[in-house]
Design brief:
Structural class: alpha+beta
Number of helices: 5
Strand content: 25-35%
Radius of gyration: 15 Å
Bound molecules: magnesium ion
Strand order of the largest sheet: 4-1-7-5-6
Number of strands: 7
Order of helices and strands: EEEEHHHEHEHE
Length: about 160
């Protein structure tokens, strides 16, 4: 019998002026960027937490502490590659990954393909195993007023 594991990841970052906006490894020209110790790629962070959850690796805060200067400004795709290596070492591979970005603006539809490609490449899987989508929250809450962005990710793993 195939051994399947499901995992969910959720992350939030604050939007501030003077920071680049990086989502799924794509730098998007925008008036604000996400604040964080790494590149603050909220989408990729949710993916790492989903995988960590499914494979019982804990969470990204434990794997990559934000008190460690080694991770200052680091590309989250690099960290995702490390998570992929840990995942393989645990005997798991990704069946599929579904990610939802919650943001009022900017429109990310033009970048979704590239984001999926970046995530797939970092995980060593095919792009057709990854889906990236986005929604607004109708102007409500912290994503609605533009003070932050959030992301959810769900991943299905199977034993190698
Ligand atoms: Mg984060």
């Amino acid at each position: 019998m195939t051994n399947l594991r499901i995992g969910h990841g959720y992350d939030v970052h604050r939007l501030v002026e003077g920071r680049p906006l990086i989502l799924g490894g794509v730098e998007i020209v925008w008036e604000k960027g996400l604040l964080g110790h790494s590149d603050a790629d909220v989408l990729t962070h949710a993916v790492m937490d989903a995988i960590s959850g499914a494979a019982r690796l804990g969470d990204i805060g434990t794997l990559f502490p934000d008190t460690d200067p080694a991770y200052a400004g680091i590309s989250s795709l690099k960290l995702l590659k490390e998570v992929a290596a840990l995942l393989a070492a645990q005997g798991f591979c990704v069946v599929n990954l579904d990610v939802t970005l919650l943001a009022q603006a900017p429109k990310v539809a033009p970048y979704r393909r590239q984001m999926a490609e970046n995530l797939a490449k970092a995980l060593g899987i095919s792009q057709d195993q990854v889906n990236v989508k986005a929604t607004t929250e109708e102007g409500l809450g912290f994503t609605g007023d533009g003070s932050g962005m959030a992301a959810h990710a769900v991943v299905l793993l199977e034993t190698i």
